[in-house]
Amino acid sequence: MLSLDQIEAVFNSSTIPTALFSPSDDPVFVAVNDAFLQTSTRTREELVGTRLFAAFGAPQESLEDSSATALKESIALAIRTGKPQTMPAQHYPIKVRQADGSEAYEDRYWNAVNAPVFDAAGRLIFVLHYTLDITSQVKAQQEQRATSELYSTLIASMDDGFCIVEVLYDEAGKPVDYRFLDINPAFEAQTGLKDARGKTVRELVPDSNDTHWAELYSSVALTGRPLRLVEEGSPIGRWFNIYATRVGDPKQGKVAVLFSDVTESRRARDDLRSLAADLATENRRKTEFLATLAHELRNPLAPIRTGLELIQLAGGKLPARVHEMMDRQLNQLVHLIDDLLDIARINSGKVQLKRERIALQDAIANAVDTALPLIAAAGHQLDVSTPDVPLVVHADPIRLAQVFSNLLTNAAKYTPAGGNIGITVQHDEGGVRVAVTDSGIGIPADALTGVFDMFSQVSRNMGRAQGGLGIGLSLVRSLVEMHGGAVHAESPGEGKGSSFVVELPLATGGAAHAPASAEPSAVGQLPSRSSLKILVADDNVDAAETFTALLEIGGHEVDVVHDGRQALEQAQSGSYDLAILDIGMPGLSGYEVAAALRTMPGCVHTFLAALTGWGSEEDQARARAAGFDAHLTKPAGLDDMNCLLQSLPDRRAQ
Question: What are 163's strand-pairing partners?
Fold first, then answer.
């Protein structure tokens, strides 16, 4: 049997801080071992015989800091039950003697056991109390918890997306997929993937069979080398800047990924590049267009100038063929300018269709009449095939005829002499399909989609310039689309002809309106009637003089001025039957002159005609609002003067 000295030696040699308390409500230290003294920084003389809670009272004990109370209850329970009581980890600050001899409370955390000790007779003689100081472990856990909370707060507050992924391998050890283990709130906003935590990419994007990303992340996990990618495409169809690094053991295949969505910036840059390319293309087309415009305007001017020289050489006599030539070239100039104005008005939204129920066949017939001289001059054979039953469309008859005449003219220009041109019409219950075909130079497959673009001329790129400004087909497309239809080009290839197909909806219910018949005009002469007193105001001296000469040939008395103020002064000198006012005059515009004339007593009944290069409906409405009775669009010829002078008596009679 061990002696008391031996037992004491064993007791003191234990590395576990141990004490013996008296079994009472206010325990007293009976014995302490060396480890307890070392932990508590106390001497045996200070503790033995001292009450436990007097020696180690907790500072400012409260309901919130109840470690002392818990220790009391544990000791009391051990005494009452006779069984050891293990306490959960306790925060119990103790006074610790410092190196300078002073004392200060230090935070300590303990695991403690209170066990009853009985003698041979079964009497309770002590309470054995042993503790483990777990302060370092608890503080390490606290630091880890604080670090984890800081990490969570930081990751959750980031604008960049973050995730931890686990690479998944197939039976052969090949990376085939990856699972999202953790994500931050920005992850969903950046990727658009909902409820991704715990799911694989293939579960989230079933159509994705690409193992590219799984292979990249596997390389990061196995090698430990971080990965940085700039503007990389992903399986979800977006682009990201990405940084990936390994997390934990390589065998776990875990990778932390930090990324930012750059899809919009990439698209914006791509859009800017595309826009720059488009602008370069448009700039090239416009440069070509301006060169073509200069060429096309010179073409009619040259024969007109020659015709004028012939007139001079012939002593003022104008041969019929020269007159026809000059008239034809002048019409070509007017046509070029009209096309330019039409496309400008359409692009600015100023063209308004005057739609009515018409027979499609009537629009085609009018188009054929317009284009027939050019077709005949080239020796082409024209074949028109239309149904006998009227096909009623809700359209502007003039604009629709313009569509088909432009297509016929285009076919005539790009078909070698003696070619074939045809118009065929097909229809069903809802729509009609009009095809204008030719046996001409054809269109390469890569140019089919661009033939309707502004200033585009495929033939110029093929080295076969045929004249024109390259806006006719663009005008066709715009007018067809304004009618709710569509147009496209077809061609087997270069040198194999082409076909332009217009599709339009058919009107429902009711018959077509009969086309208005044009009143025949006395071309080549002004109407015979009594002489009129006319005022002409135009800052273009040549235009004013030729206009005056035309009127004087008709027997009228004409006064000419060249600015707005002179027009008002001249109007005060006598009452005029007709005043023809240029809109763009210096000093006062034609609008201002018209408004002023309407207030002058001597000009109340004067018929006012606006003369301008602007002829849209908006321009005509503005002229009427300014007080004009009629609107003449430059260049005004005999037909225009006939209509104006024929309407004058009706107006004066009102």
Answer: 183, 257
Same domain? 377 vs 486:
yes
Together in a domain, 106 and 210: no
Q: Residues 409-440: pLDDT tens digits? A: 989 988 999 999 999 999 998 899 999 999 99
Tell whether 301 is covered by a domain.
yes
pLDDT score of 75: 93
Distance CA 47, CA 425 (A): 118
Written as six digits, the tokens of 353 are 């269709």
Mean pLDDT of 48-52: 92
Find the domain containing 303 and state its range: 280-347
Q: Looking at per-residue confidence, does 146 or 468 come out higher?
A: 146
Could you tell me the CATH number of the domain that includes residue 58?
A: 3.30.450.20
Tens digits of residue pLDDT in 641-653:
788 888 775 444 4
Instruction: Give the tokens for residue 257.
Output: 């990924």
DSSP letter at 25 equals S
DSSP assignment letter at 51: B
Beta carbons within 8 Å of 226's beta carbon, 6+ residues apart: 220, 243, 244, 245, 246
Amino acid at 86: T
Q: Return the closest-CA partner of residue 537 out of 478, 583, 596.
A: 583
Please, which residues bridge with residue 179 across strands?
A: 166, 200
In this predicted structure, what is the pLDDT of residue 525? 47
Angle at 252 between CA 251 and CA 256, to 5 degrees: 120
- Which range has the worst mean pLDDT, 1-15, 291-305, 381-395? 291-305
Are residue 371 and residue 480 in the same domain, yes or no?
yes
Mean pLDDT of 556-578: 88
Contact (CB, 8 A) for 501 and 373: no
Query: Which secondary structure element, helix H or strand E, spans residue 606, and what is its range?
Result: none
168 vs 253: CA distance, rounded Å: 8
CA angle 270, 275, 280 (to 5 degrees): 130
pLDDT at residue 356, rounded to an integer? 92
CB 529: neighbour CB atoms within 10 A? 13
Same domain, 206 and 298: no
